[in-house]
Amino acid sequence: MAATTGEDGKVLQETINPSSQNLSISQLEDGRLEKNTDDTEVKHPRDGIPTWKWALTCVGLYLGALLYGLDTTIAADVQGSVYEALGEIQNLPWVGLGFPMASVAVILLMGRLYSIFDVKWLMVITTAIFEIGSAICGAAPSSDALIVGRVIAGIGGSGMYLGCLSYFSVFTTNKEASLYNAGIGLAWGFGSILGPVIGGAFSDSSATWRWAFYINLPLAALMSPVYLLIFPSFRPNKEKTTWQSLKTIDAVGAGLNAVVFVLFILVVTFGGATWAWGSGRTIAAWVVWGVSFAMFILQQTFFIFTDAESRLFPLHLLKSRALVLVCVGTATSATVVGVTIYYVPLLFQFTRNDSALQAAVRLLPFIVFFIFFIMVAGGSLPVVRRYNLYYIIGGALVVTGGALLFTITPETSVARIYGYEILVAVGAGLPFQNGYAIAASKVAKQDRAAAIGLINVAQIGFMAISLAIAGALFQNLGYQSLKDALAEFHYPDDYVRSALAGKISPIFNSADSDVIDIAVRAIVDTIRRVFGMLIGTGAALLVGGLLMPWEKADFAADLED
């Protein structure tokens, strides 16, 4: 059964007889033809969709990816302003973490939904959820309300991002997919790196930090006619009713998966900063996390309250060495991006007394090279085909750039820091988005959606996890370093904690320049140690690339079931 979309936006169906067409591969899991063996003409996945409609669809999809990337990092440079307006410094990490945490908690479930329901309407619904969350953030009267809005926006954003990937998996050929996916990476990367710039600009303006979240509303409204009237419809599983499809969802697995991610990020974030590491609630939270993780593994392994076809996590794909290592490469490159985006602006705020906007602009070298090399990698991968090279070269560059960032002091020149940023940007950009095309080429047709889901978890999940770990390092090491450095001045703990949120602490209002210099050196040393994460993740990226099979991926062929 081949499915495509006609001029009127409705799904068309056409029955194909494989034997009469002499096709060795006649039917994809999503119902469209892609390849034959005797050069018989077959329909393109976009057959029946006018070029102008497809162009507008791509614009809408790339805007969705850009907004998702924007909101992933926009909180990086508004936290000081949020603290000044709403207080409650203990909630500050969640302003940044709430969005990616919620995204990764539901991303496997979203992937399952996209495999059984109409892609268009899921995209519309999740975009609406994202906008509702953004509106709550902009109007938040308290930090608790802001966090709730970030969580809601994260759930919707996860669906938006997966919708982009789903559209391109349905309406592009294998050869085209790599470049289209690179476009998603370009849009997401552009948004994620512009996030601190836009957030900083609003924080320093009369519009205030609230417009860092409100900005999503007019942008989505602008594209709503495209979403509603232009986007083609496609439902992968038309044989089952909506109720029958809903019954196949692994609700138990989805719940356990969400608990595992949320609990881990919660304990890492609160540990040391809010809860003492040895306190009863910290220990209890780790125990609950461990039990939940074990239950999730058992439930997925033995199909408890689910079956092999419907289970949430595709454990069988972990038998592929190449796929596992590609996931490792995706996770490590996402970690590099997250840590760099959040802590380079902070470094300049302390060492150069930059405003939020000025500090964010310092990311421009990273932005330009990261985006450029995402496109270079996406365009060259189908030609080079030896995918491991991107991970090996990328890992070596990240280790080098990370090691250099580990040497920074308050006196390190701006030019040197820019150079270190560029090394890291190139290293992270080369493998960042390639995993989607590689994963699709390494598995059978019916496993492609699951393989893409794994890459999503690696990319989005580990960015959230890495930000939580980096935040814990910064808060715990920074607090102790500041406390020790300023011991003779007897500042209260809340002064020390607030100093880590930016230059909004009474410590930096001191008339004593020696106090300010001591504090800046302690905080820069803490940021330097956070950059040590780049060395470890770069090494993992490099080793993973070296362990990958030395082979050429076949992006033109479909694998049999």
TrEMBL record:
GO terms for cellular component: plasma membrane. It is found in: Membrane. Its main location: membrane. Residues 57-556 form the Major facilitator superfamily (MFS) profile domain. InterPro entries: MFS, MFS_dom, MFS_trans_sf. The keyword Cytoplasm does not apply. Keywords: Membrane, Transmembrane, Transmembrane helix, Transport. Residues 1-20 are annotated as: Disordered. This is Efflux pump patC.
